[in-house]
Amino acid sequence: MIAGTFIGAIADKYGRRFMCIVFGICYSLSALTKLSPDFTILMTGRFLAGIATSLLYSSFEAWMVHEHNLRGFNPTQLSNTFTIATFGNGIAAIVSGLVAGFFADRWGYVSPFMLSLVCLIVGTIVVAYTWSENYGDASIDVQSTFSNAWTTLKSDRRVLILGMVQSLFEAAMYTFIFMWTPALQEEYKLGLPFGTIFASFMVSMMIGSSLYDIAINHHYSPEQIGRVIYLTATLSLLVPYLTTSTAAIFISFLIFETCCGVYYPCQGTLRGKYIPGNSRAAIMNFFRVGLNFLVVVVLLKVSELAYGIVFLICAAWLAIACILHTLFIANQHQPSTR
Questions:
Q1: Phi and psi (nearest 5°) for 141?
Q2: CA–CA separation, 282 and 294 (whole Å)
């Protein structure tokens, strides 16, 4: 949460491609630490993974959006890129889950991390030798990049609201990731088919990305689509609070995952449209501070709360996100700072 905030400014200053390579190195080292039983080494691995996660959710997108604009592609095609990426992520997640399960059963729980190491090395080599470099504003130092990002958040209400909406939605999403298992296990005592459930979640996300593409092709704007996402997601996470029916809860979870599939290309397109390019990665990492704080606060108290209450909190976050997104739409014609 803390280191990631500054990592974005470094990416804007020294290059997004460079920091994508750093991502591969950090995650590779994190995977290697799983070979050790030493707690200090394992914690170092988690620290490296935290830095890499911040880079994963900022530097790659910042690089792609910059290249999209630099090469003169149609701005409307940015939505298509995010849609394809979300759909592809769903396929990759399903295949990875199956392969990791096979490796874990055959060679132990550390073996999937070693397999991921191979993927990380190959991916990093591809980035290093096939991507061009791009920057935010390489003429200023890291502190100025960080300062510019903060100034943008204060001066451009659209970017600030966009970040708050993202923090609230993704905080609910990550809390959901921690809580869906106990919510279903509470009522289903015979043992859960985790692989099937995870696959169904990923299929729902892929359906969501396809629905976003259909909506865009029918000339609905990302701003309009966002309002439907947040309202639907709010209602879906109210279900575990209102009922103990396993079937109803599971269906509501599928609906929420579908909303996530719509959310990723929608929010990515809005970030590409409204966040200024000279400090894009730094601003995107600012957004993650809020979501990490919210998730940490809830997880520290989760043992004291019924799962229904946790989902009620998530629904409240999503309801606030829906209200903020409505304000975002009202402010979308504010003069740009880009």
A1: -80, 175
A2: 20
Report which of 335, 212, 200, 327 is spatially closest to residue 257, judged by C-alpha positions. 200
Residues 4 and 50: beta-carbon distance below 8 Å:
yes
Q: Are 47 and 14 in contact (CB under 8 A)?
A: no
**Contact residues for 155 (Cβ-Cβ < 8 A; gap 6+):** 337
Residues in the chain, overall count = 338
What would the pLDDT profile of 86-97 be if each residue is shown by its tens digit? 999 999 988 988
Structure token pair of residue 33:
């630490």
For residue 77, give Cα distances in angstroms to 24, 83, 225, 328, 333: 27, 10, 16, 22, 21
Residue given tokens 């399903």 in the structure block: 94
Predicted TM-score (pTM) of this structure: 0.85
The more confident residue out of 72 and 316 is 316
In this structure, of 92-96, 114-118, 145-149, 287-291, the range with the lowest mean pLDDT score is: 145-149
Section 175-204 average pLDDT: 82
At 48, the amino acid letter reads: L
Q: How many Cα atoms are found within 13 Å in the side-chain-facing hemisphere of 153?
A: 19
Vertex 177: Cα angle to 176 and 181 (nearest 5): 90
CA atoms within a 13 Å half-sphere pointing along the CA-CB vector of 242: 11
